[in-house]
Amino acid sequence: MSFRTKLLIATATLVVFSLFSLGHLIRRETTIQLSEQFSERVSAIAALIQNELDAEGQTLRGQLSDLGEIIQADNRLRRALIQEQPDDRDFLIDYATRTMRLTALDIFQIQNDSGRVLSSGHFRNEFGRLRPGLADRLNSSPDSTALFATPTVDGTVMALTRSLELVIGPRRFAIVGGVSIGSVIARLNSDINLTVELVNPEEFESRPRRDTALTRIVPIAFIGEDVSRVGDARILITHSDAPLREVDERIDSRIMLFSGLTLVFALGLTLWIVRFISRPLDELAEKTARLDIDRLDVTFASKRQDELGKLSRLLDDLVVRLRTSTSQLRDVERKAAVGDLARQVNHDIKNGLTPIRNVFNHLADVSRDQPDQLETIFAERRQTIESSLEYLGGLAENYARLTPKMNNDPCDLNTTVRDVVTELADNGTKPSINLQLHDGLTNVLSDRVVLRRIIENLVTNAVDAAGVSGSVTVTTAPGDNTLTNATALLEIADTGAGMTEEQLERAFEDFFTTKQKGTGLGLSVVRRLVLDLGGTLGVKTEPDFGTCFRIQLPVTGTAKTGVAQ
After folding, report:
1. Which of 452, 453, 462 is nearest to 345 (CA)?
2. How far lies 484's CA from each of 46, 162, 487, in Å?
3. pLDDT tens, position by position, 109-118
4. Domain that holds residue 165
5. Coil, helix or strand for 128?
6. Which of 339, 374, 404 is the last residue of a domain?
7. Are 134 and 111 in contact (CB under 8 A)?
């Protein structure tokens, strides 16, 4: 990701985060303030309703008091109430209806001391009905006022009701009067965002709860139609949250518009700044790209006084120092290359001379102890000498060229393994070497000398690692068929001490060795030679359990893989 892209992303992130954080704070504060205003309004309406209920209760009290005085002064009504003669029945039934026409009451009843309705102005069919305890329940309610559900011609009416006791002669009577609470609620429902509704106790219990700050409840005592149902009705005042949502939507749309415009402006300004900064950086990058160990004529001199000018002068000073150090570095590289080559030659020649030395030591022992067997032993060991001399001759030809050219010919992997192991066994090598060679294995494409060097280095290392008490197993088999090209597999495993993770990481480095007399070149040479043959090399090792080298080489009729594992 380029510097320009990173700066644009950082700017966009900062602008968007800042604007949306600010917008969120503005939206939150606006919502809080509007919610408080609506809440205050709902609270004020709740207080207004409570005041109106109190005022209606006082008005009812006055009206009932006036009606009580009128009833006390009406002799015919007094006689009808006390004597209850059949001639006075119609007069008594119609009395409450006539009285309601002269008042603002919506319900009016006269009951005797047993609760029987003697006259009902709002519903004539109530005549003679028993409503025992209605007056007592009204008088025991707060402020002696309650919401009474009573039937009328048009249905059940919820009325704010009071009761007044009358004593006429030896008997007691009660007059019950009330006004419909619907008119109070209707007056307050003029605002489309405000809802005032009356909820009786049963409806309130089954009503789903809504936790909102915009709802207020005004409790009022409630008496059901059968008088036995008592409880608290509620007048719910709820303010719609539609204005809040509308304000939030307007704020959100304006925040989005303002954020978009600000983001476009910020990105444009950032692009201009980046271009102003990146131009000299691009020039430095172009000059740096031309810089090479063989081309140190690039100059970074600059007259700028800012940080870029300081960087240019530092680079120019670095180039000057590189020019001074290049010749010294090349001399050191030459000496190091000569030293590496000398160590590798020494290592390879020692591997070739060891079998010859062992054969001659063996012949000397035979000449001393069994001179008559000298010719026979020499004939048996002659092949070892000739093979070693051929190996040394091949090395000489390879080192005669700075870049040896390998002659890749079909080579029998099993035969080469047997030759190497036989020579080591003839020299009295311990531990034992177990061979598990696959019959009919396809020949590999390899230089014969190179193949022998690979096998000899790995087997010798395995023998040294296993020690006298351990064992070495050499296995050949067809290679992994999941690879693109057909291969032959060579595994050399030992039961030695194995390698730690740190040793494994450095195992193929030049001159790294854990042996007291080792050169540290064996595995690095093997790795390079395997790669040159287009094969792969893998290692599995575990401390105290040994090491297994796994090599896959291309067989005849396939292309080189060129992959190392």
Report:
1. 453
2. 86, 103, 9
3. 999 888 889 9
4. 3-239
5. coil
6. 404
7. yes
